[in-house]
Amino acid sequence: MSNPNNRFAWTAVYFAIIALIIGGIYAMSTRVNYDWNWSDVPQYLVSTTGQELRAPFDGYVTIAEDGKSLTLAEYEGERKQTYTDFADTYAESGDLVFRDDLLAYQAGLKPGILLVGLWMTLKLSAVSLVFALLLGLVAGLGRVADNPAAKRLSSTYVELIRGTPLLVQIFIVYFFIGTVLKLSAFTAGVAALAVFTGAYIAEIVRGGIQSVPKGQMEAARSLGMSYTQAMRHVILPQALKKTLPSLAGQFINLIKDSSLVSVMALTDLTKAGREIVSSNFRPFEVWFTVAIMYLLLTGSLSWLVRRLEKRMAHD
């Protein structure tokens, strides 16, 4: 049993080191000739500008005298559209506007560009993870299979994918395969991330299966189980417990690797940050915020995996 005094002392050392790191960062920030302005960041998380009201067709604008309603009458047509409860207008009475032109902003809150990018990152990572798990499991089983064709195909896939950079694979999938098969940017991004992550999961699965004593398979087969049944009910559950920390690390890497899809026509968290920096020229505040959002994602996943580990340890 550990000495409480020692635990307290080492805890104090930990907090002292963290304080030194924070102090060092603050000291560096004061030496940089930069005008810090964090007040601009909240608008990129939750926007107060409200909803954009755009013209659904070409037409003429009429604004009521009290300024509380705006009517769009179709050009060479009979359709009319009236808007109320808007905060600001971008057209005047008598203006001819065209379809999708901005008419006004409707009061209210809406997700900022960083939250929109965060949602795209979450969606992209979640869908990619599902396919990566399936692909990795199949390839991992192929790596330990007795069938020469399955083993060689799995080995070729793993070595080919692990031996080339993810960014290069994204370019190939998006600009070559995606163009030939007419894939959307989201589908191409999911495919690239799933194939890349699946190769690493395959190696984790292979290592987990080989770490289970061979006697487990022999015992299962002696009970009348087929190879598939023994693998499903005996080997894989044990392998999962052994590989869960490695799988968690790979899941976290997948979330971070998803930032590379910003080279495609997808507004993920990283691309949202780049767009903001190009418009307000405040890179430090934006990139610190983006880093914190990624940290919250990966930290939450790590916490969930630790909970799962403890639960499986008691089963």
UniProtKB/TrEMBL annotation:
Stored InterPro entries: AA_ABC_transptr_permease_3TM, ArtM/GltK/GlnP/TcyL/YhdX-like, MetI-like, MetI-like_sf
Limits of the ABC transmembrane type-1 domain: 118-305
Pfam families, alphabetized: BPD_transp_1
Topology of this chain in the membrane: Multi-pass membrane protein
GO terms classed as biological process: amino acid transport
SUPFAM superfamilies: MetI-like (SSF161098)
Residue ranges crossing the lipid bilayer per the database entry: 12-29, 124-145, 157-177, 183-202, 286-305
Main subcellular localisation: membrane
Gene Ontology CC: one annotated term: ATP-binding cassette (ABC) transporter complex
UniProt keyword terms in alphabetical order: Amino-acid transport, Cell membrane, Membrane, Transmembrane, Transmembrane helix, Transport
Keyword Transmembrane included in the entry's annotation: yes
Top-level taxon in the UniProt lineage: Bacteria
Single GO MF descriptor: transmembrane transporter activity
UniProt subcellular location: Cell inner membrane; Cell membrane
Role noted for this protein: Part of the binding-protein-dependent transport system for glutamine; probably responsible for the translocation of the substrate across the membrane.
Similarity section: Belongs to the binding-protein-dependent transport system permease family. HisMQ subfamily.
Protein name, per record: Putative glutamine transport system permease protein GlnP
The organism of origin for this protein: Hydrocarboniphaga effusa AP103
